[in-house]
Known about the structure:
Layout: H1 3-16, H2 20-42, H3 48-70, H4 74-90, H5 112-122, H6 138-154, H7 159-164, H8 171-187, H9 189-203
Amino acid sequence: MTETEQTAIDLFTEKYGKDLFARFDKLDEEYNELREALEDYKNHLPGSREHLIDELSDVSAVKTHICGLLGVSNDKLLTNAIIKVKIREVNPYYMKEIKEENVIPEKKELTLDYILERTCSFYGYEDIADCITDSRKKDVVKVRQQYCYIAKEATTKSLSVIGSKIGNRDHATVMHAIKQVNNLLQTDKKYRDEFIELRNKVLGITPVVFEPM
C-alpha cells in the first residue's frame, strides 16, 4: 500500500465510513457518471477531456477506498491482472467459461501433458513414468501434487481428467493433493519459493506476487 493510497483510504474512511456495500453502490454511481463523461468525449464536446479525467479520478478514489476496506492494494489488483493476462497468452481458456471443443486450439495452449512434463523435469525426472506410479517417495508425491495444483489453476480440465494423467487418480485424490499444496504454500517458505519458481517456469511468466488458492 503506497503512502498516497493509505492517506486516501484514511480520509475516505473518516468521511464515508466502512460500509463496504454502500461504497460499491457509490462506485456504480461514479461509473454511470464516467460513462456520461465518455459520451461527451466521444462527441468532442468542449472540456470533455478534463471532465472525463475528473470522473475517472472519482472512480479511482472510490475503488481505492474499497480496496482499503478489503485489505488489498491497487498494486496487488494490477499484479493479479498481469498474472491472468500472461497465463492467457499460453492458455486462452484460463478462467473463461468457454468449451474447448468449440474453439480452435492455439499453438500456445497449455496442456496437462506439458504441465506434467515440465513439473517432472523440474525435479529431475526425465521419464514421466517415474512419477505416475504408486511410489510414495517424497519428491514423487510432490511432483504429482504440484502438477495437480498448477493444472487446476491454469486449465479448465476437471479434477478427474487431471488425475487421469498421473495413474488415473480420482477426483478426491486430486482435491486432496491441491489442499496439501495449498497448506504447505501457507506454512513452509522454502516449499513456497520452490513452487513459485516451478509455476513461473511452467506457465512461462516472469516472477510475480503469488497468492495460494
